[in-house]
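Long-time lurker. I teach an intro course on protein structure, and each term I like to show students one example going from raw sequence to a predicted 3D structure in token notation. This year I'd like something fresh instead of my usual example. Would anyone be willing to generate the tokens for the chain below so I can use it in lecture? Attribution to the forum is fine with me.
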Amino acid sequence: MSQCTMLPNLVLNVPSIVRRSPAEVARILGPPRRASGAQLSADLRNVYHGGTIEIVFVDGKASWIKLYCTRNLPFSREILAKLGLPEAKPTYVNARHVMSWSNLANLKEVSVYAGESGAVSSVLVCVEADQAA
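-- Reply from a regular --
Happy to contribute to a lecture. Here you go:
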């Protein structure tokens, strides 16, 4: 069984993990397969679900979320629903390569990259920095 078939109906509730600590994310996704700290910073990178989800924690909070092996998902704007995000018009579209949204509340950007046969190859979610209280 390939890594991609481990999550055939990949659905990730992105809002449930943004700005969460590694322990909180582990309660949602299970323990990470591998964790590593960046060499020049205190950032932590954890990998989940056999390498199909990668999360970078900045200042102890989930700040970058990357999904790989998402070929079962069609490359279309409906991908947002599969990520637990509200439907919105993309702010940038290159119909053959990428769609991006910078108009989603509490997220700096969501980018979806095209793969083969009209499917998604990967998704990158960049979380905005916490607002000062």
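Some talking points for your students: The helical segments are 22-29, 79-82. The chain has a mean pLDDT of 82.
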